[in-house]
Amino acid sequence: MISIIDYGAGNLKSVQHALSTLGFKTEIISSKEKINESDALILPGVGAFQDAMDQLVSLDLVDPIRENVKKGKPILGICLGLQLFFETSYENGKWAGLSLLEGEIVRFQDDVKVPHMGWNTLIPNPNANLEKGISAGISEKDYAYFVHSYYAEPKKQDEVVLWSDYGVRFPAAVQKGNVYGMQFHPEKSSEVGMKLLKNFGELVT
Amino acid sequence: MLAKRIIPCLDVRNGRVVKGQKFQNIKDVDDPVSLAKTYSEQGADELVFYDITASNEARDIFIDVVEQTAEQVHIPFTVGGGIRSVEDFRKVLKAGADKVSVNSAAVKNPQIIQEAAQKFGSQCVVLSIDAKQNEQGWWTVYLNGGRVNTEKDVLEWAKDGERLGAGEIVLNVMDTDGVKTGFSLAITKAISEQVNIPVVASGGAGNQEHFLEVLTEGKADAALAASVFHFEEIKVKELKDYLAANDVEVRRIS
């Protein structure tokens, strides 16, 4: 069972439908107990970083997420979900994240249109495994759908699986052990997105 | 590199897609969900569903279409038509829409942009502007399908929209809508250069060259059209091959 965490930030149905189409069992959860019971977690999210963290705090989900991830439970962060994995965000202030990954969340400069909205190319990190694992079957020609104004600046570049480029090179997908993150929306990225969700599903079930 | 987007627009009435042209009395219908799937398979980057129904019963049917699309189509889509309040935003987002476009209601009450952006995020708030040019060359904002001139300057309204928190602008030029003489390049370019959010050009698409022009000279980030796609005068896949051959970055599916 892949559990999608509902903390009031965003469109959970699309993620759930996409996973169901691929044949994975899913449920939408929002309690500590359910997080403990699940085989794998998905942290979706759209909206503001601070609101999202506040929601996770008020639902008392921060520690359960951290503890489960520490014990090795796989987790996939999508869009804002990926950003929440990092230590600090500078979105309208300075906010602490879940610190599952080292690095910061910063805004695109105004030399490009913000939000970064649309289909952009995925650029595999030279050390990324394109044969198996989360990025299996992905190539330089593939596009994914992004909608975001902020991006991650990871401390460790080898934790980046796929890059993308929008005035600056930024991580499109990251992985550190059981922690996976996608800045784009795989559930909205047509066949490429379905491939990536399938990779995640197969890794964790 | 970020690709230029091609967006088919589906007008929905009573749960069916209406394929109509402004100056020709052709009407045909299709199932919106299956048409959406077809466009997605052909490589459309996004879709727009426009609710052109009036009654509450039909509104429920429309919401049902939105839900089914979200379940079955894995590309982003915008919902517009009949959006009058933040509550309307909530309903269509909950049904699975990725973005919501607001038009007349925002002209009457610009705060709706700000409230929706604060509640749901700028990324899902699309300001749709119906525009016409007068004899003096001045572009103004129209309402009610081009019948009411608000005297509001189009460029200023686009900037206001950005400032209030819209994440994208759709510029629909009424003069060229349905007449297939090409997008309005100058006003599209002016808006695209003066706001720092994506601009979608709409109205006037007749052939592939029109798309090329508006995505290059017109500086649009995306181009939207309805009838040329519905009547298969232009196929999304062929259009993208053509654009790519002319050095426009587009997403092509293999």
Query: How many domains make up the coordinates of chain A?
Result: 1
Taking Cα atoms only, what radius of gyration of chain A do you get, to the nearest Å? 15 Å
In N-to-C order, the SSE pattern of chain A is EHEHEHHEHEEEEEEEEEEH
Q: Helical element count of chain A?
A: 6
CATH classification, class level of chain A: Alpha Beta
The biggest beta sheet of chain A is recorded as: 8 strands, mixed
- Note the overall shape of chain B: globular
User: Average pLDDT value of chain B?
Assistant: 92
> Structural class of chain B, please?
alpha/beta
Largest sheet of chain B: 8 strands, parallel, barrel
Average pLDDT of chain A, rounded to a whole number, is 95
Main location (chain B): cytoplasm
GO molecular function (chain B): imidazoleglycerol-phosphate synthase activity; lyase activity
Protein name (chain B): Imidazole glycerol phosphate synthase subunit HisF
Pfam family, one (chain B): His_biosynth
Summarize the structure in words.
The complex is a heterodimer of chains A (205) and B (254). With 205 residues, chain A is α/β, with parallel strands linked by helices. Helix content of chain A is 27%, strand content 30%. Chain A contains 6 helices and 14 strands. In chain A, the strands form 3 sheets. Chain A has an 8-stranded mixed β-sheet with strand order 2-1-3-4-14-13-12-9. In chain A, strands 6-5-7-11 form a 4-stranded mixed β-sheet. In chain A, strands 8-10 form a two-stranded antiparallel ribbon. In chain A, strand 5 (88-89) and strand 6 (95-96) form a beta hairpin. Chain A starts with a strand and ends with a helix. The mean pLDDT of chain A is 95. Chain B has 254 residues and is an alpha/beta fold. Chain B has a single domain (5-245), classed as TIM Barrel, CATH 3.20.20.70. Chain B has helices at residues 32-42, 56-72, 86-95, 104-108, 111-120, 154-164, 185-194, 208-216, 227-230, 236-245, and strands spanning 5-13, 16-21, 24-30, 47-51, 77-80, 99-102, 125-133, 139-143, 148-153, 168-173, 199-202, 222-225. Chain B starts with a strand and ends in a 9-residue tail after the last helix. Chain B: One of its GO terms (molecular function) is imidazoleglycerol-phosphate synthase activity.
